[in-house]
Design brief:
The complex is a heterodimer of chains A (about 475) and B (about 500). Chain A is α+β, with helices and mostly antiparallel strands and about 475 residues long. Chain A has helices at about 55-70, 170-190, 230-250, 295-305, 310-320, 325-330, 335-345, 350-370, 380-390, 395-405, 415-420, 430-440, 445-450, 455-465, 475-485, and strands spanning about 5-20, 80, 85-90, 100, 110, 110-115, 120-135, 135-140, 150, 160-165, 200-210, 220-225, 255-260, 265-270, 280-285, 290. The chains are: A alpha+beta (about 475), B alpha/beta (about 500).
Chain lengths: ~475, ~500
């Protein structure tokens, strides 16, 4: 979307990341998804009288990992002492009548995530990341009695890390780039399974608009209920347009919470600030402040392995990858793992590998809506193809055809090359015949080239390649064409 | 007849009684004492099953000192067998799927549970007139209140319906009813007795403890009740080795101070002048002074000290406790268990009506107060300020303990008042807590031991306050005082 002239948007994201712990944050009940309703809720999750919360240290460890990952491994943004607070409100699927969250002293304060959107790099700064428990789920449909709502408390008490950015993004594209980068990071460090359909990674966007150059922030609306990157982009775009329209019509944006309706591609008001609740936060007296000694942070750091940002720097420094390629390669663990398996099989070729993975391969995955871990071509088979490019057996162009055939599982690389006759021809006499034929058949292009129009050479080059079924060595074709036309 | 645990245990060991005969005997007394309204739930089958099991263990030679002895629990502790109501309409028919830690521990020690005891609704009250199931009467004078909120426990022990009971203390709820009914009770250091399974009133203050006739019996009970519990995050794991064992510490203290006439030698008792100021009933003041003098006559040294923020403990407590209560009691919404309104328009209406119907007046008053002091714009002025005062009060106590070993004074400014006398004036009722609230706010241990009766034969309690984890010494001092008082009477 192009921003309407004279306006700019300001966007901040709040992301609820469900942590991959075996048990809940304050109870020993399991956290598995998809179990029959209320089979994974124990007395604590049900808030039976007399029950008390006991903190799951694995959840704190997840927050520590995140704090290290968004600060380049630096621990200065991880609180030495963190406090859980109660957020009080009534809702049928909130068993205690309050949510245990963090208010004044979250585990992580600050941090940043590097993104790339529209070809430009940007640092998205984080306000904080705090631990909290999830609520249960209200079921208003599919129950055997009409007019009856059900409550499923399986999800109640599931650990969440809420990650809040500063309001620093200016477009839906940036917001999505951030969300993708964050998703890659939290799955990379293993604190979240990243499954958006199951609600493991949920984004709320705070969106406001203002006139270009206005230093004041506009009134914001919070968009909830966005469960895919595509919807996040559409929801923000819709909301920006909506707010600009409201303001241009002389109206005022109302501070409110809006839900994104994917079917209608629009956001609609859920509740306004007038019914905004006073959550009456106060430190939870059932839980002692969590001490996070540096020794604990060190232990966690050692368990983490190399962070993606460090790997990216290494890829640039050691193998000459561009900063952008290096960052993209390390955006998800699955891609980085693929990259390293591929270069290991190739015995090098890091730049060629990066070009292929970020170009042809990414595009193919996108078309098929697949993730790296689901790629139909494994690194060993892709390495076999890249080897054939490196040793001159196929041209880059022909290699793309081989790639498509590999994708469709037509056999191994050499068999496909042979079957399709894609072996690169470097026989000068054979190429010369094709070049002569092309020159003879296209006198107009020849004339134009000789008149100084260099582009005309491309047309002739294309003709030769086509005639050779993409097998002619492109370097030789260009060289011969130039020589003949000059003569 | 001697109805202490100590004496009953001797009868069991001498085969003059069995756990079943003791249980039966006490159940009969409970039945006969129905007008006191001390017990809420009694189930003879459950009790006798436990008694039979205890008799089997006795026959097998199990030496556990509490084995086979009857006990009853304040209805704020959840139990699998008996209903758990917290004295509230909200939980009138509620049965817990698990036992409170306190219940588990006494059951494991072989005690036989006689049932559940009446209390102020959610432990909120100083007179036990706030129970949804009727007021409890003081066995010393049925026209008077037994104190609260553990009024059912105190009345039951005082009336001989059960030799010992559990109670809870948030701002004095163990000590004050013990004082009003003439029995002994101790509120331990916050964090020594697990709160798991104790229906929460104010989490940072709530603490369970024993009530019995004597300090010795309390020491036996507390020895079993104390201990780390991973299910309660505020339970204290690292207790100084020399303070870790209550019963052993209690015996050692007494053995070291056994020489007649010198029972309190080397002991410095601090007497806060604020505890004997105007407003304390003259008879109460005189009784406490006599008790102190008796100990001084046998070797104790008296120092007058000051706890300058004693009066501030009332507003601080009545901000912090309601704040926590307003949140703790949010879970009673009619969704999962407990009372649910019969008619409602929608979910919010269901929650509102359920709570309007299920909670009593005092509980609502405290929920409203608590929600108010936590609300946006008032939090700093009330809640934060109260927390600051709370820290200062704790510091005052530490300063005092640099001058003395134990602090002594009255438990309450008056003896038991007439039922209904203060019901219309909540502030007058809150003022009765003035000498117990500071101890709760500071998380210190405090006990109440009978020291006299007034002209109307109403008991006066002496409060003994110790530093953290000093329960064994406090109980030992109270025990020697009790021996002295027995000999003198």
């Amino acid at each position: 979307m192009r921003m309407p002239a004279g306006w700019e948007a300001v966007i901040g994201l709040e992301t609820h990341v469900q942590l991959k712990t075996a048990s809940k944050i304050f109870s020993s009940a399991p956290t598995d998804f998809g179990a029959a309703p209320n089979t994974q809720a124990n007395a604590v999750d049900l808030a039976l009288p007399g029950t008390l919360p006991v903190l799951n240290r694995a959840a704190v460890e997840c927050a520590i990992k995140f704090g290290l990952a968004v600060n380049g491994g630096d621990d200065r943004h991880i609180a030495a002492r963190s406090v859980f607070a109660r957020k009080n409100y009534f809702y049928p699927d909130l068993p205690k009548g309050y949510q245990i969250s963090q208010y004044e002293l979250p585990v992580v304060t600050g941090g940043q995530v590097e993104i790339e959107a529209g070809g430009a790099r940007k640092t998205v700064t984080l306000t904080r990341a705090h631990l909290e428990e999830d609520a249960g789920k209200s079921l208003h449909e599919g129950l055997d009695r009409p007019g009856v709502s059900g409550i499923d408390l399986n999800r109640a008490g599931t650990p969440l890390l809420e990650i809040v950015t500063d309001p620093v993004m200016v477009s839906a594209a940036e917001a999505v780039a951030y969300a993708r980068a964050l998703h890659g990071l939290v799955t990379w460090i293993g604190i979240c399974d990243g499954n958006m359909q199951e609600g493991s990674f949920r984004c709320d966007a705070n969106v406001s608009v203002r006139r270009d150059g206005d230093p004041r922030l506009g009134t914001r609306a919070e968009i909830k209920n966005v469960n895919s990157f595509r919807f996040l982009e559409k929801a923000i775009e819709f909301e920006i347009r909506r707010q600009i329209e409201v303001l241009e019509d002389g109206g005022a944006v109302v501070q409110e919470t809006r839900l994104y309706d994917a079917e209608r591609d629009q956001t609609r008001s859920m509740r306004s600030k007038e019914d905004a609740m006073d959550y009456r936060y106060f430190p939870d007296p059932d839980l002692l402040p969590v001490a996070i000694p540096r020794q604990w942070v060190e232990t966690v750091r050692h368990s983490m392995g190399e962070l993606p940002a460090a790997i990216a720097s290494r890829l640039s420094a050691e193998f000459g990858l561009s900063a952008s390629d290096a960052r993209q390669i390390t955006q998800t663990r699955a891609l980085a793992d693929y990259f390293f398996a591929l270069t290991a099989a190739l015995g090098g070729g890091h730049r060629l590998a990066a070009t292929w993975l970020l170009g042809e391969f990414s595009a193919a995955l996108n078309r098929a809506a697949l993730e790296w871990q689901e790629a139909p071509i494994g690194p060993t088979r892709l390495a076999a193809l890249l080897l054939r490019i490196q040793d001159g057996t196929v041209s880059g162009k022909a290699a793309k055809e081989v790639f498509d055939a590999l994708w469709d599982a037509e056999g191994d690389v050499d068999a496909i090359i042979a079957a399709r006759g894609l072996r690169q021809v470097s026989d000068t006499a054979a190429i010369e015949r094709l070049v002569d034929a092309a020159i003879a058949a296209h006198p107009k292009a020849v004339e134009e080239y000789r008149a100084g129009k260099d582009k005309a050479l491309n047309a002739l080059f294309g003709q030769v390649m086509k005639a050779s079924n993409k097998t002619a060595n492109p370097g030789q074709v260009t060289e011969l064409l130039k020589k003949k036309l000059a003569g | 007849m001697d109805t202490t645990l100590h004496a009953l245990s001797a009868r069991l060991r001498a085969r003059q009684a069995t756990a079943v005969s003791l249980a039966t005997e006490h159940l009969e007394r409970i039945g006969a004492a129905a007008p006191l309204n001390a017990f809420l739930h009694v189930d003879a089958d459950l009790t006798l099953a436990q008694a039979r099991e205890a008799d089997r263990r006795l026959a097998a030679g199990d030496p556990s000192p509490l084995l086979g002895l009857p006990v009853a629990h304040k209805d704020i502790f959840v139990t699998r067998g008996w209903r758990s109501t917290a004295g509230s309409r909200m939980l009138e028919h509620y049965t817990s799927p698990f036992d409170a830690a306190v219940v588990e521990r006494l059951a494991a020690a072989g005690m036989v549970c006689l049932g559940k005891l009446n209390c102020d609704e959610f432990a909120m009250g100083s007179s036990n007139e706030n129970s949804a199931f009727g007021a409890v009467r003081n066995p010393r004078d049925p026209a008077r209140i037994p104190g609260g909120s553990s009024g059912g426990s105190a009345a039951a022990v005082a009336a001989g319906l059960v030799p010992a009971a559990t109670g809870t203390d948030t701002g004095g709820s163990l000590r004050q009813p013990a004082s009003m009914c003439g029995i002994t009770a101790i509120k331990p250091t916050y964090g020594r007795v697990s709160r798991y399974g104790m229906i929460a009133f104010a989490s940072s203050l709530d603490q369970g403890g024993p009530m019995a006739h004597t300090a010795e019996d309390c020491a036996l009970l507390l020895d079993v009740l104390c201990g780390f519990d991973a299910r309660d995050s505020t339970s204290i794991e690292d207790i100084p080795a020399d303070k870790a064992h209550i019963w052993r510490g209690f015996q050692a203290e007494n053995a070291a101070n056994a020489s007649p006439g010198k029972e309190f030698a080397g002991l410095t008792l601090g007497v806060p002048r604020e505890f004997l100021a105007d407003g304390v009933a003259p008879e109460v003041r005189a009784a406490v002074e006599r008790a102190i003098a008796a100990m001084v006559a046998r070797g104790a040294r008296r120092v007058d000290i000051s706890l300058p923020r004693t009066a501030l403990s009332i507003p601080a407590y009545y901000v912090i406790a309601p704040a926590e209560a307003s949140s703790n009691l949010s879970r009673f919404d009619g969704v999962r268990y407990g009372h649910r309104a019969a008619d409602f328009r929608d979910l919010n209406d269901m929650i509102e009506r359920t709570r309007a119907e299920g909670f009593g007046r005092e509980v609502k008053r405290r929920i409203l107060t608590g929600a108010y002091v936590l609300s946006h714009g008032y939090y700093d002025a009330y809640y934060l300020q109260a927390q600051r005062v709370r820290r200062l009060i704790a510091e005052d106590f530490q300063a005092a303990f640099r001058q003395c070993d134990l602090i002594v004074g009255p438990v309450a400014p008056t003896t038991a008042w007439k039922a209904g006398e203060k019901s219309a004036d909540p502030v007058a009722m809150y003022l009765e807590d003035i000498f117990t609230l500071g101890v709760s706010l500071a998380g210190l241990p405090g006990l109440s031991v009978p020291c006299a009766v007034d002209a109307g034969a109403l008991p006066v309690g002496l409060q003994v306050i110790g530093n953290y984890f000093d329960e064994a010494r406090m109980l030992a001092v109270a025990h020697r005082y009790q021996r002295l008082a027995e000999a003198g009477s």
